């Protein structure tokens, strides 16, 4: 009797097949690494420079009304987005208010990386992911999350997922990590089918793994047979890939991240694009913020209560944006910005900031929010609390040359 494998069991037990067949480039990969302990850390890179003054509006500062009017002002009737009488979430983030009320949402304002003045997305993202103060070590370097892994005794990695091309530089380095892409187009051409058959024929280990996957299948519903089942298997994968592409990419990344973090993985990082709001920001930024809120809520749902309680999610961006609105109804590349944090491991329900004020004399170069603390210090204290890494190692290895300063108490 032919052994059978249902759709769900096949896709969960034979990710290696996807690695062999994937051909499409990966724009935003998800990277994972397993590590000991119960803490989980998810780092979301917001590529394009999020406007922290719009995402988290300091309406209690008298200077804010002078800088931001019309659609960028705070509607006092939208009290659902008010946080503490001084700061208010953008209405597009209002869906996160239950997390705020539960103490599982926090923000850190007026922070930045050491990057200054040139305001290049490429340079800014390079330094954000490298975690260094400058380019003195060259651009081809490891990322700060990868350096963290080298300090975790007994850390291990997930089985490799190489669906698509590209990587998160934040996890590049000597410590091996697993990679997976939700955006690879698995529509299989006749050439891909031929390749799959050749792999099955010429790689006994691969064929044996596939046989084992079929043998482990429970055989219920929508099953395919091992013997002569190659084309049926490919058709099944095509159908599922088409269905997956109809869902939002960020939600698929969050769902997959949650799945892995419920198992051996302890660290996940992925990126969300769409934060470069030079014009019509009142139309483009709400869309990006809604995607971010949905992604965070998907992580919460996917992780479930016990795992969520050990998790910190942090969203970071390469720089903030100008304090004033430009002539196109947008904002230009700036300096100081905001980090958004979520998770059951947080001591949330608060905005952490050494607020510099928004008077023109208080602005950086009279144009940007003045950063008052290095973003890396907050990241360092998160890793110290989640993984028990010493401050000296964080300042020496993960963020070389950084003085983390006092503990802001971000974690319970």
UniProtKB/TrEMBL annotation:
Signal sequence residues: 1-33
UniProt name for this protein: DUF1501 domain-containing protein
Origin species: Thalassococcus profundi
One Pfam family named in its UniProt record: DUF1501
PROSITE patterns cross-referenced by the UniProt entry: TAT
Keywords: Signal
Alphabetical list of InterPro entries matching this protein: DUF1501 (IPR010869), TAT_signal (IPR006311)
PANTHER family linked to this entry: BLL7424 PROTEIN, DUF1501 DOMAIN-CONTAINING PROTEIN
């Amino acid at each position: 009797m032919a052994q059978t494998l249902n759709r769900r069991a096949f896709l969960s037990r034979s990710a290696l097949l996807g690695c062999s067949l994937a051909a499409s480039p990966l724009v935003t990969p998800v990277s994972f690494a397993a590590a000991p302990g119960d803490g989980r850390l998810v780092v979301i890179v917001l590529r394009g420079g999020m406007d922290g003054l719009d995402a988290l509006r300091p309406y209690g500062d008298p200077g804010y009304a002078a800088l931001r009017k019309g659609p960028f002002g705070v509607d006092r009737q939208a009290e659902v987005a008010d946080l503490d009488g001084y700061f208010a979430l953008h209405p597009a983030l209002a869906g996160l208010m239950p997390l705020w009320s539960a103490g599982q949402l926090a923000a850190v304002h007026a922070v930045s990386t050491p990057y200054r003045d040139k305001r290049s997305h490429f340079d800014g993202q390079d330094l954000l992911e490298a975690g260094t103060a400058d380019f003195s070590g060259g651009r081809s370097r490891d990322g700060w999350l990868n350096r963290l892994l080298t300090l975790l005794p007994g850390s291990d990695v997930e089985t490799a997922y190489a669906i698509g091309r590209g990587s998160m530089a934040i996890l590049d380095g000597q410590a091996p990590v697993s990679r997976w892409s939700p955006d690879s187009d698995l529509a299989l051409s006749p050439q891909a089918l031929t390749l799959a058959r050749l792999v099955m024929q010429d790689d006994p280990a691969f064929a044996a793994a596939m046989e084992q996957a079929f043998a482990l299948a429970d055989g219920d519903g929508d099953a395919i047979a091992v013997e002569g089942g190659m084309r049926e298997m490919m058709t099944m994968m095509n159908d599922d890939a088409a269905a997956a592409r109809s869902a939002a990419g960020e939600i698929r990344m969050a769902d997959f991240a949650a799945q892995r973090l419920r198992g051996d993985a302890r660290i996940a990082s992925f990126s969300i694009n769409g934060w470069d709001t030079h014009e019509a920001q009142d139309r483009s930024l709400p869309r990006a913020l809604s995607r971010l809120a949905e992604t965070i809520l998907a992580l919460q749902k996917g992780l479930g209560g016990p795992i969520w309680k050990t998790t910190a999610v942090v969203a970071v961006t390469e720089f903030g944006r100008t304090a004033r609105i430009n002539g196109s109804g947008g904002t230009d590349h700036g300096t100081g910005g905001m980090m958004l944090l979520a998770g059951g491991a947080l001591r949330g329900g608060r905005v952490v900031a050494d607020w510099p004020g928004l008077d023109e004399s208080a602005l950086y170069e009279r144009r940007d929010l003045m950063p008052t603390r290095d973003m890396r210090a907050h990241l360092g204290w998160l890793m110290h609390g989640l993984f028990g890494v010493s401050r000296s190692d964080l300042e020496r290895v993960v963020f070389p040359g950084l003085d983390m300063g006092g503990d802001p108490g971000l974690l319970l």
